[in-house]
Amino acid sequence: MARERKFTDEQLFNATKKMIINDGYEAFTFSRLAAVLHVSRGSIYKYYENKDELISEFLMYEMNRFLHDFQGLDISRDFEEQVEQLIDFIFKHSNIHHVMEIIHQIPNNTTQRAKRNKLKLNEYHIEMYQRFQGFLDIGRSQQKLKKQLPDGIILGMIFQTIAIPNHFGIAQEIWITSIKEIICNGMIEK
Amino acid sequence: MARERKFTDEQLFNATKKMIINDGYEAFTFSRLAAVLHVSRGSIYKYYENKDELISEFLMYEMNRFLHDFQGLDISRDFEEQVEQLIDFIFKHSNIHHVMEIIHQIPNNTTQRAKRNKLKLNEYHIEMYQRFQGFLDIGRSQQKLKKQLPDGIILGMIFQTIAIPNHFGIAQEIWITSIKEIICNGMIEK
DNA sequence: GACTAAAGTGACACTACTGTCACTTTAGTC
DNA sequence: GACTAAAGTGACAGTAGTGTCACTTTAGTC
Prior knowledge:
The structure is a homodimer. The first copy, chain A, is an all-alpha fold. Chain A is built from 9 helices and no strands. Chain A has helices at 9-23, 30-37, 41-45, 51-71, 79-92, 94-100, 112-141, 151-161, 172-185. In chain A, α4 packs parallel to α7. The longest helix of chain A has 30 residues, at 112-141. Chain A starts with 8 loop residues before the first helix and ends in a 5-residue tail after the last helix. The model of chain A has no long low-confidence stretch (mean pLDDT 90). Chains A and B meet through α8 and α9 of A and α8 and α9 of B. Chain A binds a DNA duplex through α3.
C-alpha cells in the first residue's frame, strides 16, 4: 500500500554508529547521515524529529542487543571461570562502553520521545549493573573476593579495562590474558 | 606603550578548561568564551587565529604544568611506596587524562601554529610515557613486577583507573586505597 | 598635548547546519 | 487505470557559528 523504503533501521543505526565512533556526537549531522544513506535529509525527518531523538533510538537498539547477548551467558560455574567469561564478553562488546557515554550528551530540552528513551536507558543501565551485581554476589558467597573492596570499584574496574588504549599494538590475546591476571591477582610478583 | 589587557592567558585557559570539561570540545566556541571573559569575540582573534589554535595552546599550557609537577616526584624509594605515590599523583591530576584526549579532536587542516603544537604535544605525550617507563624499570630491576605482563598494559591500566566513574559515591580515600590494592594484588582473596 | 601602538569593538559577509512543507513518486488496493 | 497512503524530495526561512577589518580606545612616550 506504500512505496518501498530506501534504507532500513539497521542501515541507519550502523551508519550512525560509525559516524559517532569515528567523529563524535557533535560531528554527527542529518546532512552527513543522509549523504551516507543516499537519501535526502527530509526523508530522515519522516522518522525522527531531530538528532537527539534519532540517537536515543540508536542507543536503545544497541542496549537491547547487549542485554539480549548478556542473557546467553552461563552463570552456573566456578567463579574464576566466570570472571574469564565476563571479561571476554565485555571485550566482545567493547564498543558498548563508548556508546553508553553518549547518553549524557543528549540535552534535556528535547522531544518527549527522546526524553522517554533517556529515562529508559538509565533504567537499562541500572539493570546492567544489577546483572553484574549478581555475578559479584556469587564471588562473595564463595569467599573468593576480598571483603574490603566495594562492589562499585570492582565493577568499575572491570568495565573500565575495555577502554584502555592499546598504544603499543599489543596482540589481542596477550592483552586480554594480562588484564585478567592484573584484575584477579595484581601486577606485583609474590 | 599600549592599552591594558582585559584578560590574562590564565583566565582564558581556565575558562576554556571549564567549558571543555563541562560541555565537550564542540560546545566550546569563541562566542561563548568571549561572553565568559566579558570581551568581544574580535579581541580573542587578536591572539588566536581560530579555535584549534587556541585549544592547542591551552593543551600545551596544561601539559607543561603536569610535566613540571611530575619533576617534583621523589623516585628514590622502595617500589611499593612509589606505586602509592604515583597513583596519588595521577589522582591529583585526574583531569589531565580527560584533557589530553582532546588532542585527537584537533583537525589536521588547520593553522601552522596549531599543527606545530599538535606535534609538540605528541612528543610530550611520549615523554610522559617514558617517565612512567622509568618507574616501571625500577620495579622490573627489583623483580617486583610479574614478568609476563607487558609494560604497555601496566601503564595503561594505572592511567585508566582515574577515569573510572564513581557511580555510587564511594569516599575518595576508600576509592584510592581499593584501586591501589586491585592493581597491586588483585581482587581475588588468597 | 600630540603621537604611537597595542587592545578592543561591532558590523559585515560567509558557511553549515536545522526544521518545515508543498510537492512528487511509487507499490499495492479496488 | 484510478485511488491511496506512505516514502521521498528539494527549496525555503531561520539560527549560530566563523573570520575579517576599518574603526575606536587608552596607557605610555616625547
